[in-house]
Amino acid sequence: MPSLVWFGRSWRVGTDDFVFTSALQAMLLAGSAFLIACQVNLSRLNYLDDCDTASVAWGRCMMGLLCTNIISAVLFVCTAAFSLHGGVFEVSKRKAVPVMLYINTACIAAIFVLACIAAKQAIFEAETTYCPRASTVHVLRGTVVADFSVFALYVALFIIAFDPRGRRVHHHGNDNASVWWKRFCIFCCRFGKRSQMEEAYTDLAHVFATAFRGFDIVPSDIAAGALLLHGYQCRSRELLSRMVDYGPNPQGHPERLSSQAVPAQRLTPEQRAWAHELQQYSRFFVAAYGWLLFEFQHLGSGLARLCYFDPCMCCRDHPGDHIGQGCFCDVTALLHEARLPEEDLLLTSWDNNVFKPVHYVAYDRSSDAVIIAIRGSMSIEDCVTDLAALPVAVELRDTPPDVPASEYYAHGGMVRCAYNVLDNLSEHGILRQLLCGRFAGKKLVLLGHSLGAGVALILSAMLWSDHTVLRGRLRCLAYAPPGGTVSKALMEYQKSFVAAACMGYDMVPRLAQHTFDSFREAIFDVLAASNMNKNMIFMNVLRTGEIAKSFHPSTSANLQGRRSAESALFRESLLHTPSMPLGETQKLYNCSLMIHFIKAVDVCTRTCSVLGCRGYNEEVFIPVARDFEAVQMLLASPTMLTDHFPDRFFRVMQRSMELLDRGELDRFYTDDISGVAPYLQEAPMHYVEHTPTTPTEINSLLTCGALV
């Protein structure tokens, strides 16, 4: 970082990205030179042992390869050594790397030419036939093949690193949006050129242009920065865990404290009621994923199980309206996971497209409620919808007079999804039955996971606004909703009938444009604060916490003074990117009440049978009530993706609520967490230049989610 400038253009690599590749090529060249050296005999006219009658020209060609390979191997070692100098932002310490690349390229070209000549003489002039020993022939041929491989590897690496727009500098946000638009058109060409897709590409281009803003970065910089930030946050969580004392395990089993463990305040009766309602209806969001998730959960035996449940599912009539179903595997999996009789499944729509999510409507007899469940992301079309995040206005009635209508906006892609689902409900008569038909007066529950949760949040606000008869019986349950879904005004508008749940370090409920901006800036900060070379960061991937001690406020004083002048200057330049947006972006949030399931401990247990004893770890999660401010920070963690998986989330929620009802989680709660504030002085989750000392600074850390 910044990107390598070579041959008058920028590339997708930095000057510190040539350590491993140069070392690999040096080893290949050294191996090739060793093979040739084993066959060299300087006392012979053609310099080759066991090839007395071979031509002198071929012998000289092989000697040329030997010398060039040795020289090139040394040069590649020097390139790797120069690439190891300095921190990520200290480019001047690696100014010799571009020069070395020019020399290396010339050497590789010479090796390719000599290898071509040697191959021509060996094949067309049959020089190898003058070597009586087969081992000698194989060694010489292997040498030529190895040199061709080195050339192919060198070219392939630069093809990967090539940036077709490296000669252009984009100084305006519209230029970056145009670049991203063309990239999405190429990547998603299979969707065709319908107007709806053109609109989606435009939204995606603006979102990505705003997120990356033409920063002079390369992918490996982001990876190294994420590792450093993970170590930094691990160090902070380790400090926070010092104040956690859950007491001994009641059964006497040994326990290991989780990195998520923090002092947790006891749930209020209202929060506990919401948590139970989220658990009660959680099976419906799992059912929306159909047979693919069912197959994943049962390790390849899912389809066989579905055939056992309903052998005639493909060839019989099914009650209700089913759109986009062929063999009815999805419907069978849905009925099994939701534990519903088939006559209570009113409508399913499996016709998945951009802005058209999969959803279904069912009647749950156990709670006397109508369920509208919307599936989360499970296709490329859903991912396009997720990323089409430009805010659009949402028209609502009965809004507070002191809040302007322009403050009610939401995720553009999800708003379009909500309108499509609403149209489908109206078209099939479901909405009429809810208002004045069979289900008038019944409880209405809108729910979904991930993308489906965001759509459910917006759709519930529309129904609440347009149909006053639903207001006393409407509930919206959002499972792991995206962090950038609704505006703060819209979130306040629907807080009386909405609750959400998430788990662990799940990044989706934390992900919004402003949180991504904060995460990106945090990565830049730790890269500037660390003097360690990027390659050393990668080689210490398992001990990032130890690396972070060198610039963490709890273990290092005068952090600003430790930065090199070049790192500080480059970091300052990133704050003034030419394509920075002129105004503040519209912020989006998810839900005012979040039931967050955090892992408290790992319980180590052993079970014994006639076959022997076996030990395993049980993860213990506890539900904690958070507001939207507590999930306004992305946390770098290996589980930030796996904590979002719907099947894992469902199992954790069921188990945690079961333990909560039995009173086995009481020891993890406290009635007062005010004593946590002093620990935040030395345990921030994002990089700071100094230890916060004032109450304002401490409160800002509390509200930005340092406890989560």
From TrEMBL:
Subcellular location(s) of the protein: Cell membrane
One family name in Pfam for this protein: Lipase_3
Domain Fungal lipase-type: 371-513
Cell membrane among keywords: yes
A GO cellular-component term linked to this record: plasma membrane
Transmembrane segments: 18-42, 62-89, 101-124, 144-162
Keyword annotations from UniProtKB, A to Z: Calcium, Cell membrane, Hydrolase, Lipid degradation, Lipid metabolism, Membrane, Metal-binding, Phosphoprotein, Transmembrane, Transmembrane helix
Cofactors: Ca(2+)
Gene Ontology molecular function terms on file: lipase activity; metal ion binding
Keyword Cell membrane: yes
Highest taxon listed in the record's lineage: Eukaryota
Catalytic activity annotation: a 1,2-diacyl-sn-glycerol + H2O = a 2-acylglycerol + a fatty acid + H(+)
Membrane topology: Multi-pass membrane protein
Enzyme class: hydrolase
Main localization of the protein described in the UniProt heading: membrane
Enzyme Commission code: 3.1.1.116
Listed GO biological process terms: lipid catabolic process
Protein name (Swiss-Prot/TrEMBL): sn-1-specific diacylglycerol lipase
